[in-house]
Amino acid sequence: MDNYLIPNTSSVREALQRLNMSDSQTIFVIRQDQQLLGSITDGDIRRGLLGGIELSESVEKIMNMDFSKIVKNDYSIEQIKSYKKKALSLIPLVDKTDKLLSFINLKGKKSFLPIDALIMAGGKGTRLRPLTDNIPKPLLMVNNKPIIEYNIDRLNLFGIKNLNISIKYLGQQLIDYFGSGDKHGVNISYIEEDQALGTIGALALVENLENDTVLIMNSDLLTNIDFEDFYKDFVDQVADMSIASIPYKVEIPYAILKTEGTEVKSFAEKPTITYYSNGGIYLLKKEHISKIPKGAFFNATDLMDELIHQGNKVISYPLRGYWLDIGKHDDFAKAQEDVKHIQF
Predict the structure, then answer these.
(1) Rounded to an integer, what distance in angstroms lies between the CA atom of residue 227 and that of residue 152?
(2) Domain span at residue 17?
(3) Residue 319: phi, psi to the nearest 5?
(4) Bridge pairing between strands 272-285 and 221-223
(5) Where is the CBS domain (predicted)?
(6) Those residues with Cβ within 8 angstroms of residue 20's Cβ, 6 or more apart along the chain or in another chain
(7) pLDDT tens sequence across 7-41
(8) Are residues 65 and 28 in the same domain?
(9) How many angstroms separate the most distant Cα atoms in the chain?
């Protein structure tokens, strides 16, 4: 990170030298207390010199104080999109007083979402035995890569860095494989379930959530869901919980009659009816985690029921990309072939 920073006590000459050494086209002026003051590019230096500034003078005379930044917990998806459109890659992440927290590298990223995530990975995978006799289902290989790793990499692709993984059955293997998450560009914490807690019960045990929105997903899914669009829909609809839903079509082989009493008013010849099923991926406002009992078995459907009963807004997000729940041997075989053709 120091390669992108220069003290405000430095000279223009030192800024020129730092830019020459940096792999970025921009460096940032910082005070000793980590306060960011401005940015400097080659263009800023050139304009300063043409304006009569000497190389020995302070960098504060040439810095741009209107620099691009991301304020933690106070930015929009539209702002991130505008930065990507401008092809900006290195963006400082600051608090509300402009104190530097870190840098965000948008190069190769689809977005930077203000979301924490919980991946549910504690199940035994009994339907996939004997494959899961000695290996937890999330670590089963799909084209030489563990199932769960596809999900971790995709979360990282959308800038979701703070991950929690709930573990139980053979959970130590997941800890040994991923560790702190450094090698995958994320921060991983582990929630160890002493007893089965259902499909969302582990969320009550998470203590390190930094954002107001949390994403919960099953670890055994293979999907290329657009997390940015999922989140944008959640925000736009001012929802309390959003459920990624999977279209399930039922073809009726007969004409379906619409009646009033015994009188036929109309009919549809062999219609196809589309239902939407739960896809095992959720967005939830952090404030509702308190509704989940600690240390008790609690499913996502239980939380849905409670939120709806209390008048909160629960919405469905139709997933338009690829989705496969790897629960059975046929699903596992399908995943081996499908993954060769999915655009992640």
Answers:
(1) 12
(2) 2-105
(3) -80, 120
(4) unpaired
(5) 1-55
(6) none
(7) 999 999 998 888 888 777 888 999 989 999 998 98
(8) yes
(9) 94
